[in-house]
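Step 1: inspect the first sequence and its tokens.
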Amino acid sequence: MSGFSSPIANFDNIATKDKMNNTAGSYALVGAKVSRESSVVARLRDAGAVILGKATMGEWAQCRSRKASSSHGWSAYGGQVLGAYYPQQDPSGSSSGSAVAVSIGLAFGSIATETSGSIVNPAERGNVVGIKPTLGLTSRDMVIPISVRQDTVGPIGRTVKDAAYMLSAIAGKDTFDNWTSTQPFDVVPDYVKACDFLGLKGARVGVPRNGIDYYLDSSTNPVMVAFEQALQTVRDAGARVIEEANFSSFDAPSFARNSSIVLDTDFVGGLANYLASLSTNPNNIHSLSDLTHFTKADPREEHPDRDTYVWDRQLGRNLTSSSLESFMAYQANLRMGGKEGVIGALDRHKLDALIMPTFASFHLPAIAGLPIVTVPLGFYPAQTPLTMNLKKTMVSVAPNIPFGLAFVGRGWSEEKLISLAYAFEQRTMIRRKMKPYIRPTFELSDQLEPTEETPYKLKVQYRPPVNDSPRFGQLVIQKTIGRLFLVRSWMWSILGFQQSLL
């Protein structure tokens, strides 16, 4: 692909061989150097993209602490990412910064990773488009891993077509990632050509109600109202909607337990392999045990307020990814996500895709390696009561916070999913119906020669939402972006910004 000269944000677990760090949000890897650049970044550069900087993420892709002990989008090195549609908004995670960057227009698009929801959830909360590809469509080479059996790299964009451009650029086989050898094509499809206004005409899409109903609560009522309206839009566009296209088995506690085993055993070995590939390792982190000791000892990591529960559990299992228990858990999840789940529903009803609210869409595709495209669906209405996250530090549900619609398909069906998503997007243009309450107004040309002592500051225009306080009216970037296009040493602090009280 050529002619893709666009500014792209990179996720802080996808390695670049330049002066940017690749830390997964942890001080343990600050100053570490990689032996080569990740394949997806190399493909983006070859396509003409400019890598602007690293987007802040949930530390270790939210794979460190129990949910009530930490928060989406927080990392020791990057700070706390906040969403752009309500003060103190939970951005969801773990690709929080990648989604917020696109949401407020700091980049044409971004690349991010998903193990289970980490692209599509932040994308829906940012009112943008996210594509979680089929496992094996994009390389994970030189990406700090969670699970080789679930991790994928995908794009986040303002529109379906923007995301399709990026997917075309990063997809393809790679000798550094054997999973990409399973691709059924030698030439990557042109996903931009799949953007068809008539993409819904004649399509068969199914609604797996039992996979949606399990996750319903009072906070999802507005989402479901918008979802039913979306189904009518899909019908009006010429698609046939098959109700009750249910999964033959949907045992969420079972696949959650299996996923815990798979991810725990994959992370221990996968992390050690990544650390072994570093050319410089200043903190001598060679294993999960080393990482745990570092994190507990360094006060910047905020332990024990933000615990290491996940790592302690992983180390306590004393299993490897090749153990029988891990293998059986993975096989059970493939069955539940595939034949008994998504693939079974698609085959029984002869469907092109499943259609679901994004909040309920990602669990089975995660364990079965299947693709998802999420597009904006709507926003919480004005009188929505506030719901806080488990740590009671951020707002999870509030007026104006966006939510999304997901199309889920078979492996390698990205062209079809993009076609369906594009057709829906173009008929509704929901992204345009609500603006973020913050808007960047700074231009790099305003100050060409900043220094470390006088870094750039980004002022953000403020539009108060319902029940707001004026103290959120100004956001300031405190880390330097002085040599952004020269040495690319910037960590996007707007994505993990420090608040300046008025």
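Step 2: inspect the second sequence and its tokens, then contrast the two.
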Amino acid sequence: MSPPAIIAPSILSADFGALGKACSDTIHHGASWLHIDIMDGHFVPNMTFGAPVVTKIRPHVQRPSTACGKGTFDCHMMIAEPKKWVKDFQKAGCDLYCFHYEAAVTSTAAENPADRSDSQTSPKEMVRYVHEQKMLAGIAIKPDTPVDVLWDLLDNPDEKEVPDMVLVMTVHPGFGGQKFMASELPKVRALRQRYPELNIEVDGGLSEATIDDAAEAGANVIVAGSAVFGAKDPADVISKLRKAVETRR
């Protein structure tokens, strides 16, 4: 049996004028986590917000009492230099730091925003470093990245270098409201077949219209932005997304 359903609404679609209340209301409506999209204008063409915003919304949502528990801040780091920002986001209240594989294989080993380094980091190094900062580690892949690049990482005998979650993007990262790419679901199926107990997240175009396909493929962590924040009854949408996953475990 795969892990339980986790519904993680993306606050990119929330009301930024009342963001703290939007976050607490969404958890009250039944959300498990909050998905926080961090974009730097380099790794992706859009920009969102940084650690100071996470610091401000953290008091509005109780910290999880257990790993992956209710209230987890799932920070999706769509940034070119993911290692530089680990400490800042840990201090801000991030619980799960999810970096991109594509960034980890091209970025430096610098550990602070102002630092420079001639050394490169790697996905294994990144996972270990995030764990050393007492956070869960996630790794994300874009639609153009084959899933088999993750096998060595996930099969690593050293648990400190094994991610706690894999995020399969079902849109090209950078903007909300894009159309769901069903072409990415074979990656989810391959992951679920090899790693039955892994938290597998999908992000992009998820709604009541697309959740069945994602759940059938084996995704258990569901990111939905406009489908939740744009709904007349967000609690009902969250409940339906959860049910779709739970009935297919």
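Step 3: confirm your contrast with the notes below.
The chain has a mean pLDDT of 97. The chain has ten helices and eight strands.
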